Amino acid sequence: MKKIAVLTSGGDAPGMNTAIRAVVRRGIFKGLDVYGVQNGYKGLIAGDFIPMDFKSVGDILHRGGTILQSTRCDEFRTEEGQKKGIEQLENAGISGLVVIGGDGSFQGATKLNAQGVAAIGIPGTIDNDISGTDYTIGFDTAVNTALDAIDKIRDTASSHERTYVIEVMGRNAGDIALWAGMCAGAESIIIPEAIDDIEDVIDRVQRGAKRGKKHSIIVVAEGVGKGDEIGKVIEERTGFETKVTILGHFQRGGSPSAYDRMMSTQMGAKAVDLLVDGIAGVMVGLRNGQLVHTPFEEALQYKRTLDMSTYDLARSLSI
Ligand code: F6P
């Protein structure tokens, strides 16, 4: 293998730039020519490749977003789209591809791998929702961003004796809500994996008020899809002024945390080392604190499960 490429795909996540830097520099260190693919799979289909040298990834490891841009590309789901992408790689003499993204992105990488392109995945999504790894790049930063926002909302909630329903990201996964909610001491955390009974949520708000609490915080994951509704019911039933704040894409940006920088760097370098060792069709991941690699089919086969003991603990501390 002489030439490899790297792309970012799906929703961006803090740490993607750090991972790009690691792939490029580790690749050069291992004697490879490294290319960046602009705009994810869309750029692959268009043959939008740029040669990357050591300097091209200087001064990016601390920046949010992705210097290669990212897209969600429907055309690449089709055989026709995949064929075009493979032709572009062949024409450029590129035989290895590192895909940084979520499970949708790995569906595409699986198809490429089956057709002779040595593809490796790096889990990059703030949602932390990929099976085959305990961690996805961007999660730690997103949780800290959400937590910072909740702490600030709590200040004003307390001054005005209000209840706040705060919706955080997480399409189908409650990880951000669970971590941010636990660390913020939320009264209730509502996640797709365990939708709390609204009566219980109301109960907790009322019990808190009886104890003299000046505010209540309820964190709800986007995937539950009911932030406004929950806010309305709580206000009607408790009589407490209740506001709803949706944090949204704010959580996707920002400088990656130290943990995200470390994970992105380790996973980026590992992806290159695997390619050099002739291993492909796998996703790099973290399992019990160790870097591992899992075949795409296996990583995509199972729905990732959330550790519910953390959820139970959070509930037991906010009674
Ligand atoms: O997958 C990451 C994520 O931020 C989800 O939490 C969210 O549902 C989705 O992406 C939003 O996607 P988009 O940026 O395309 O609106």
UniProtKB/TrEMBL annotation:
Enzyme class of the recorded protein, top EC level: transferase
Positions that bind substrate: 125-127, 162, 169-171, 222, 243, 249-252
The keyword ATP-binding is assigned to this record: yes
Cofactor(s) required for function per UniProt: Mg(2+)
Subcellular location: Cytoplasm
Any Pfam family: PFK
EC number: 2.7.1.11
Keywords: Allosteric enzyme, ATP-binding, Cytoplasm, Glycolysis, Kinase, Magnesium, Metal-binding, Nucleotide-binding, Transferase
Gene Ontology MF: a single term: metal ion binding
Highest taxon, organism lineage: Bacteria
Reactions mediated catalytically: beta-D-fructose 6-phosphate + ATP = beta-D-fructose 1,6-bisphosphate + ADP + H(+)
Binding site for ADP: 21-25, 154, 185-187, 211, 213-215
Residues that bind Mg(2+): 103
Regulation of its activity: Allosterically activated by ADP and other diphosphonucleosides, and allosterically inhibited by phosphoenolpyruvate.
Binding locations of ATP: 11, 72-73, 102-105
Catalytic residues identified in the record: 127
Domain named Phosphofructokinase: residues: 3-275
Assigned protein family: Belongs to the phosphofructokinase type A (PFKA) family. ATP-dependent PFK group I subfamily. Prokaryotic clade 'B1' sub-subfamily.
Task of the protein: Catalyzes the phosphorylation of D-fructose 6-phosphate to fructose 1,6-bisphosphate by ATP, the first committing step of glycolysis.
Subunit structure: Homotetramer.
Protein's name according to its UniProt entry: ATP-dependent 6-phosphofructokinase
Organism, scientific name: Domibacillus aminovorans
